[in-house]
Each structure stands twice: as structure tokens, then as C-alpha cells.
Amino acid sequence: MATVASFAFAGLQNVSQIQLSHNKILRIEGYAFAGAVNIRQIHLADNPTVTIETNAFSSLSNVDRLILPSGIRVIEPDAFYGLETVGYLKLSFMDLASLEPYTFRGLTHVKLLSLQESDLGIIRAGAFEGLVQVELLNILNNKIDAIQELNITAANRIRVLRIQGNHLLETPESGSIMLEGIDTLHVNSNYFPCGCHIHTLLDSPLANGTYLSHSGVPAGDFLSKNYCISPLEVNGMPMSSIDLYSIGRCLEQVTRENLEAANSAISTMLRGQSWNRWLQWRSEHNKRSQETTLISAVSSAVRFLAASPIIAIMCVEYLKSFNIKIS
């Protein structure tokens, strides 16, 4: 069996478990299980599955356990859309280029969602958008090339988030991580770059307040429970053993902070001067308008009275005071 085709199990009303392990399934198509409304367990382990298409598990509302194979390379957006009341969903040993936007949208009432022992590639913006009501979200022992965005908000209703044992090759950019509405956050045994971007990391929600220090002594246990992956000379060392204050901030970070501070100061100054500047502009604008109107009228009069040399000469002399030449 190479493919679980669309509507492959439509009409199964009294089946509670589907056993598809140990096949040769490469692809799970959209709506593959549509119509099999009473399924509680789906076993897909030990398949060489490469792709899970959009809406692959749509219309399943009573699944308690979904066991997926290892080696998955592509999970399309909305692959789990419509999958409700899932007790256990474990995704392990995947080889993804990226975790795409809306990967988990529509997945609700999950007791355990675990992403583990995988190459997640790049975690794209919106990857967890639409994931709702999760008891426990695990991100464990993965290789992560970069985090473009990791936004967990109160709308996700995630009670416990465990980020543990991961290797991050790049430090997330400032502002790319938001962790809100979580009852319990565990961030430990991870490996992070310890170069000049370490200050950005410690300012992020992942550090859970580590940089909120008293008398120059960092608070919290983030530094003692996480490790350095780079530079090579500190690889594997606890972050707490690094002299953070001897590591300068990255040039682009310092430049950005200086620009932000300068822009803030300029904005404040402009707000205070804007009314005076507007009054000055209005006065100058009115003056220029009056001069333009007068010059236009006199110029017209000169052309009209060209037959009268004396009047014309007087008008030309008057216009010279405005540096206007009449041909």
C-alpha cells in the first residue's frame, strides 16, 4: 500500500481502530479518513511516509491516539485541520526543511503534542497559529536551523510548554519569540550559540527573566540549565560558565539600538515642535500665495496696458522688486 488516498475509508461507521503499520505508504492524501467518524486510533508507524497533505485527517473528531511514522519530510499547512479531541499525537524522527505556517491549525483539545528527535529545519512564522487547547506541548531533542517566529499566545491555551534538549544553530532575532498565557514553561538542556547574539537570547522570553538581575547578578536558572553550541571553544559548556559581560553585543544590534533611541528622541522632539512648525509654514504659505496673486494680476495688467508706455514702465519697475522679469 503506497498511498492512503482521499476518502479511502469513507463509510466506515462501526470501526474504531485502523491498523496501517508496516506498509509502504509514501503519501497521506487530503481527506484520507473523511467519513470514518468513529475512529479512535490510527496506527501508521513503520511506513516510509514522505508527505502529509492538507486536510489529511479532516473530519476526525474522536481520535484518542494517532501514531505517525518516522522520516516525514513534508507536513503541508492545515494537515491536521479538523482533527479534534486528540489525546496523543507524537511526531518524531522527521526530516523537515521547515515547519510551515499553519501546520497545526484546527488541531484542538490535545492532551499531548510532541515534536521530538527531529530535524525541524526553520520554524516559520505562524507554525503554531490556530493550535488550540493543549495540555502539554513538547519540543524535545530536535535540531533547529533557525526560529523565524515562535508565537504562543493566550489564544492557544497551552498549559505546559517544554523546550528541552534542542540544538539551535542560530539565535532568534529580537522580537521573534512570544510566549504568553502559558501556565508552566520549561527551557532546559538546550544548546544555543554563545557569540555576540547571546544578549538577544537572554532578552527573549526563552530566558524567562534571566536578565532581570539584582546588583549585576543574573536571576533565574536558564544559564545553569542550558549550554553553548558555538563558538567551538565553548561548545558543550554551561552558559553559566561564560563571562557574559565580556561578550560585546553584535554590531548590527548596537546600530539598531542606537537608531531606535535616536528615532525615539527625534520623534519626541518633532511632536513638541510640530505645532510651531505648522504655524510658521502656514504664515509663509499665505505670504507666498498673496505675492503670487499680486504678481499675476500686475503681469496681466502690463500686457493689457502695453499700449500705454508710462503705465507699463511703472508696472515693470514694481515687478522688479519681486525679481520678476517681463518679456
From TrEMBL:
<dbReference type="Pfam" id="PF13306">
    <property type="entry name" value="LRR_5"/>
</dbReference>
<protein>
    <recommendedName>
        <fullName>Leucine rich immune protein (Coil-less)</fullName>
    </recommendedName>
</protein>
<dbReference type="InterPro" id="IPR050328">
    <property type="entry name" value="Dev_Immune_Receptor"/>
</dbReference>
<dbReference type="InterPro" id="IPR032675">
    <property type="entry name" value="LRR_dom_sf"/>
</dbReference>
<dbReference type="InterPro" id="IPR001611">
    <property type="entry name" value="Leu-rich_rpt"/>
</dbReference>
<keyword id="KW-0732">Signal</keyword>
<dbReference type="Pfam" id="PF13855">
    <property type="entry name" value="LRR_8"/>
</dbReference>
<dbReference type="InterPro" id="IPR026906">
    <property type="entry name" value="LRR_5"/>
</dbReference>
